Amino acid sequence: MNHRLLLAPALLCAASGVFGAGSVRWLETKHNFGAFHEDEGTVECTFRYVNDGDAPLSITAARTSCGCTLPHYTREPLAPGDTAYVTVSYDPTGRPGRFSKNVYINMDCTDERVSLTVSGVVIGAPTTVSQRYPVALGRDMRLSRSAVMAGDVARGRMKSVFVEVYNASTDTLRPQAVYAPGFVDVQWMPEAVAPGEQSSMVCHVRTADSPDWGLVADSLVIAPDAASGERYVLPVTVVVSEDFSKMTDEQRAKAPVVWLEPERLDCGVLDKSSGTVEMKATISNNGRTPLEIRRIYSMDEGVDVSLSTRRIKPGKRAEITVGVDPSRFHGTLINAKISIITNDPGRPNATLRVVGELRR
């Protein structure tokens, strides 16, 4: 067992002057274990209390704020003038970083509840650190995730993505974002990270400043410390969509309606060396107001796409031209997706599929 004791100012609680009442005085209510290794196992400390009254007193209940913290105490009444103690143990297994836990004590001599606090810093074991922070940035810093993925966010709104950061070095780190896209603000909480402690990299993704619609991909460049020459790249992605939340029923009834013909283009069997193949599709507006094509794109490098117009009046259509370069595909199959971002509330992200086979 690891015993460490820290004295704190006395805490006094007493009964309301009733004859023959117990009165408790705590000799300490806080204990800091300091920094210790997770591999040391459970640590414990002792909180002493004295009966300053003229009648016995007892602890009636002891509750904790976490299952990792356990109190141990005697249930026997404490005679006037005697001293007893509460032993509090903390299990650091799987809990690297700073902690502060409370034990709440109820006694029969008072209605007031006493709070005993244990705190410290757990220096994580290698296996625990690698599980909770699987992404290593050099030797000094580890992250809980390898990318900042904001998911689907309506245009004009903001989403905050948290990446937990662990200081695996023996020095205090002050990580920083050397580069961030114009639509991402980076905040470190806290800005200085002591050895064995953690921080949060908070990425505020502002879609109002996004350069495009649909899937937007960029990167963060971060350094473990301002003085460090090390640089690491962290991908950033967000899907920027139209915000239809404030549309009325009448506006929805008059909204544009996307119609694709066909919704699947089949290239057939192509030779890797056959050169680019061009195909056509149409997109029609079956609604009652103009259809705005916010963006049309494919993330597949073997597919190029263009559109004859980005604003389609009701009852009209536009032509989609798709170029497929078989030499830029790997394997024997073509299974590509073209995303069409529109202001149709019923189908804001329409998909045109491109399929085929490849012959070497």
Strand order of the largest sheet: 1-2-4-7-6
Q: Give the low-confidence spans.
A: 1-19
Biggest sheet character? 5 strands, antiparallel
Strand content: over 45%
Indicate the overall shape.
elongated
Helix content: under 10%
The overall strand count is 27
Radius of gyration from CA coordinates: 32 Å
Count of discrete alpha- or pi-helical segments spanning 4 or more residues: 2
**Distance linking N and C termini:** 68 Å
Verbal overview:
With 360 residues, the protein is mainly beta. A hairpin with an 8-residue loop joins strand 15 and strand 16. The strands form 6 sheets. Strands 1-2-4-7-6 form a 5-stranded antiparallel β-sheet, with no helix packed on it. It is elongated and about 95 Å long. It has helices at residues 126-132, 249-253; strands at 11-14, 23-26, 30-37, 43-51, 59-64, 69-73, 83-90, 97-107, 114-123, 135-137, 141-143, 148-154, 158-167, 176-179, 184-189, 198-206, 214-223, 232-241, 258-261, 264-271, 277-285, 291-298, 303-307, 311-312, 317-324, 333-342, 349-359. The chain has 2 helices and 27 strands. The termini are far apart.
